[in-house]
Write a structure and sequence with these properties.
- The protein has 20 helices and 18 strands.
- By secondary structure, it is α+β, with helices and mostly antiparallel strands.
- It folds into five domains: 9-93, GIY-YIG endonuclease (3-Layer(aba) Sandwich), CATH 3.40.1440.10; 109-248, no CATH class; 256-368, 2-Layer Sandwich (Nucleotidyltransferase, domain 5), CATH 3.30.420; 396-554, UvrC, RNAse H endonuclease domain (Nucleotidyltransferase, domain 5), CATH 3.30.420.340; 563-610, Orthogonal Bundle (DNA polymerase, domain 1), CATH 1.10.150.
- Helix 4 crosses helix 11, helix 4 crosses helix 12 and helix 9 (208-224) packs antiparallel against helix 10 (228-248).
- The longest helix has 39 residues, at 349-387.
- The radius of gyration is 30 Å and the shape is globular.
- The protein starts with 8 loop residues before the first helix and ends with a helix.
- Mean pLDDT is 85; it is low at 435-443.
- This is UvrABC system protein C.
- Residues 22-99 form the GIY-YIG domain.
- Its main location: cytoplasm.
- Residues 209-244 form the UVR domain.
C-alpha cells in the first residue's frame, strides 16, 4: 500500500480503513522519508488500525500518528504468525517508536562432543544443537570458562584438540597437575573414561543426588577392596560436587527462566536468571531502548517477544508481572522453537522467592545504571558546550590507526554514547599496505586517515540511522585538513575535532583543533578532560591490539617461508585448507598430505620443521 496524496496522521488512517482487510497480519507505519516509525501486529488489521483514529490515545501514540505519512501491511495465516513476523521485523528495522532489545547476543552452551572415542567438554555458541549433547544456556562465556575449569578439576576429562591428542607420545602438563587422566597415552581405560563422561552428564543434567549416591557406593567398594587411593579420589570428587552445589545456591530442580522487570521514573531494567537441571546458569540485566510514555506491561511484553525470538525457552518462563495475551505469546514461542513452554506468574513458594530475588537484582542494576547515565549525560552536555554543537551528542565516533612503517596498518573506530561505550558498534579497517621502503608515503598517517574516513562516510550514505553527532580523530592540524577535504568531497557537515598530545607529546597536555578556530587545551584535572582522554585511549588501545594481532599472525604465517619446497602457491593452499597457521601446526602428516599440491614427502618436511621446537 502506498500513499500518493498529502494526507497524513489520523486522516490518512481513516482514508485507508475501507481498503484494509479484516485479517491477521502486521502493519508498518512510515514517515515522510519512508523510514519505519512503528511495527505492530493484529488479529484483525482493520480493527486494530481503527483504534488509532480514537481521541483517547496515549501521548506516545499521538506523537507517532502525527508523523505518519504512509502505512504498509502484510497478511499472515494467524495471529501467532503475525507475532513471530513482528518480532523478526522489529529486530531487523529497529523502529524508533518500538521498544527495542539492543543487547541480544545468543547465549553460549557447554557441549559434550560425541564424535570422538574420548569425548571432551567445550564452549559452544550457535543455533545448531544437534551434533553432541548440550548443557545450558549460560548467560556469559566467562561463566562457562569457570564451570569448565571446575569440571576439569573434578572429572579430569581431556581438554586438548584432536590433533594435539593424536600426536602425544607422553602425558602433557595437564596430567602432571592432575587435570587430565591422559587417555592419549592410555593412562585410563576406555570403560573408565566412559564412566567419567556419564558422571559429567548426570551432574550437568541436575542428577546430582543420584550421582553422589553412585559415587558413594563406588567408594565403599574400593575401600572394601583395600584400594584406598582410588577411594580417596572419589571422596574428593564427592566433596567438590557438594561444594559446587552449595556455592551455586540453586534451589529449583526444573528448567526455568526467571524474568523480573523494575522501573524508576520511566527507566526500565529486566533481569533474566537461568536455571537448568537444578543448576544456576547465571543472570543478565537488560536495559531496552524505551520510547517515551511507555509502560511496564508494554516493555515486558515487547522484551519477551524479542528475547525468545533468538533464545531457546525452557519448560517454564516465570515472570514478575502479568502480561496480556500470555497464552498467545507462549503459543508463538512454542511454534518457533518446537517446545512446550508455559508462562507462569507465581503466587508464592520457592518460585515467588526466586522472582523477588530477580526483581531486587533488577532494581539495584537499574539504580546503578541511572547514576552512571546521569554522569555521562552531564559530560555529554559539557562536550556540546565545549565544541559548540547544536545538540547534545548521542553518538561520538573516535578514530585512530596503528602501523609500523606502513606495515600491518589498521584503522579503528570506537563509539561512545550517553550510556557508555557501544562495543557492538566498534569497527576495524584493514588499510591497504602503504608503499615500500624508499617511498615518501611510508607510514603516512594522512593517507591512512583518508582511506578510513572515505570508507566510513561511503557507508554512511547507505545507512542514515547511525550518523555520529561528533567525530574525534587522534591527530593534529594536518589531520584536521584531511578531514575537512573529505567532508567537502562528501558534502557533509558532521562536527569533528582533532585531538593531539600537544608540543611536548605528553598525555595531559592535549590540544584540540577545530575548523576555523584557534587550538586550545583544558585543565587536566577536569572530569571533561579525563573523559576525552579515556575516549582517545580506548580508540588507541583498540587500534594497537588489532595491529599486534595482525602482525603476530603475519609473522607466524611467514615461518612457512623458511620451510624447504614451500613457496607462495603451497603456502596459500595450506592456509586455504586449514584456515590458520595454528591449525597447520596441529595437523598430522596424513592431514597435511590431503592438501592439494602437498605429497607425503613434503607433508613430512612441513611437519618436522613445525615441530622442531617440541
Amino acid at each position: 500500500m502506498a500513499n500518493n496524496s498529502n494526507v497524513t496522521g489520523h486522516n490518512l488512517i481513516k482514508s485507508l480503513l475501507d481498503s484494509i482487510p479484516t485479517l491477521p497480519g502486521i502493519y508498518r507505519m512510515l514517515d515522510c522519508n519512508q523510514q519505519i516509525l512503528y511495527i505492530g501486529k493484529a488479529k484483525n488489521l482493520r480493527k486494530r488500525l481503527a483504534n488509532y483514529t480514537k481521541h483517547d490515545l496515549t501521548t506516545k501514540i499521538t506523537i507517532m500518528i502525527a508523523l505518519i505519512s504512509d502505512i504498509e501491511y502484510t497478511i499472515t495465516s494467524s495471529e501467532v504468525e503475525a507475532l513471530l513476523l513482528e518480532a523478526q521485523l522489529i529486530k531487523k528495522w529497529q523502529p524508533k517508536f518500538n521498544i527495542l532489545l539492543k543487547d541480544d547476543k545468543s547465549f553460549p552452551y557447554i557441549k559434550l562432543r560425541l564424535d570422538h572415542d574420548y569425548p571432551q567438554l567445550i564452549k559452544y555458541r550457535g543455533q545448531d544443537l544437534t551434533n553432541g549433547k548440550f548443557f545450558g544456556p549460560f548467560t556469559s562465556s566467562s561463566q562457562i570458562d569457570i564451570t569448565l575449569l571446575e569440571l576439569q578439576k573434578i572429572f579430569k576429562l581431556r581438554s586438548c584438540t584432536d590433533n594435539f591428542y593424536a600426536n602425544r607420545k607422553r602425558p602433557c602438563l595437564q596430567y602432571q597437575i592432575k587435570r587430565c587422566y591422559a587417555p592419549c597415552v592410555n593412562k585410563i581405560s576406555a570403560p573408565d573414561y566412559a564412566d567419567l563422561v556419564l558422571q559429567v552428564q548426570d551432574f550437568l543434567c541436575g542428577k546430582t543426588q543420584h550421582l553422589q549416591q553412585r559415587l558413594a557406593q563406588n567408594m565403599e567398594i574400593l575401600s572394601a577392596n583395600l584400594n584406598f587411593e582410588a577411594a580417596a579420589e572419589i571422596r574428593d570428587r564427592i566433596k567438590a560436587l557438594s561444594y559446587i552445589q552449595l556455592k551455586s545456591g540453586a534451589t529449583i530442580n526444573e528448567d526455568v527462566d526467571i524474568i523480573a522487570i523494575a522501573e524508576i521514573h520511566g527507566h526500565y531494567c529486566i533481569a533474566v536468571f537461568l536455571y537448568r537441571g537444578g543448576q544456576s546458569c547465571g543472570s543478565k540485566s537488560y536495559f531496552p531502548y524505551i520510547p517515551e510514555y511507555s509502560n511496564k506491561v508494554e516493555v515486558l511484553t515487547a522484551f519477551l517477544s524479542q528475547f525468545y525470538h533468538t533464545h531457546s525457552p525452557p519448560k517454564a518462563i516465570i515472570l514478575s508481572d502479568a502480561i496480556p495475551q500470555s497464552g498467545l505469546l507462549a503459543e508463538s514461542i512454542n511454534k518457533l522453537h518446537q517446545t512446550k513452554s508455559i508462562i507462569i506468574i507465581p503466587k508464592g513458594g520457592i518460585k515467588r522467592d526466586l522472582v523477588l530475588n530477580a526483581y531486587t537484582n533488577a532494581q539495584l542494576a537499574l539504580e546503578q545504571n541511572i547514576q552512571k547515565s546521569i554522569k555521562h549525560q552531564t559530560i555529554f552536555a559539557e562536550i556540546r558546550q565545549l565544541f559548540g554543537l547544536k545538540i547534545v551528542p548521542d553518538r561520538i565516533e573516535v578514530y585512530d590507526n596503528s602501523h609500523i612503517m606502513g606495515e600491518f596498518a589498521v584503522g579503528a573506530m570506537i563509539v561512545a554514547t550517553p550510556n557508555g561505550f557501544d562495543k557492538k558498534e566498534y569497527r576495524l579497517f584493514n588499510i591497504s599496505q602503504l608503499k615500500s621502503a624508499g617511498d615518501a608515503k611510508i607510514g603516512d598517517d594522512y593517507q591512512m586517515l583518508r582511506e578510513v574516513m572515505t570508507r566510513r562516510l561511503t557507508r554512511l550514505r547507505k545507512d542514515h540511522t547511525k550518523i555520529p553527532s561528533l567525530i574525534i580523530i587522534d591527530g593534529g592540524k594536518g589531520h584536521l585538513s584531511v578531514v575537512q577535504k573529505i567532508m567537502h568531497e562528501f558534502n557533509l557537515s558532521i562536527p569533528f575535532v582533532c585531538m593531539s598530545k600537544g608540543l611536548i607529546r605528553n598525555a595531559g597536555h592535549e590540544q584540540f583543533h577545530l575548523p576555523n578556530q584557534e587550538s586550545f587545551t583544558l585543565d587536566n584535572q577536569t572530569l571533561l578532560m579525563k573523559y576525552l582522554q579515556i575516549l582517545r585511549d580506548e580508540a588507541h588501545n583498540f587500534a594497537i591490539n588489532a595491529h599486534r594481532a595482525k602482525r603476530s599472525n603475519a609473522i607466524r604465517i611467514s615461518k612457512l617461508d623458511d620451510i624447504p619446497n614451500i613457496g607462495q602457491i603451497r603456502k596459500k593452499a595450506l592456509l586455504n585448507y586449514f584456515g590458520s597457521y595454528q591449525t597447520i601446526c596441529e595437523a598430522t602428516i596424513d592431514q597435511l598430505s590431503q592438501v592439494p599440491g602437498i605429497n607425503r614427502r613434503v607433508a613430512t618436511t612441513i611437519f618436522n620443521n613445525l615441530h622442531l621446537s617440541s
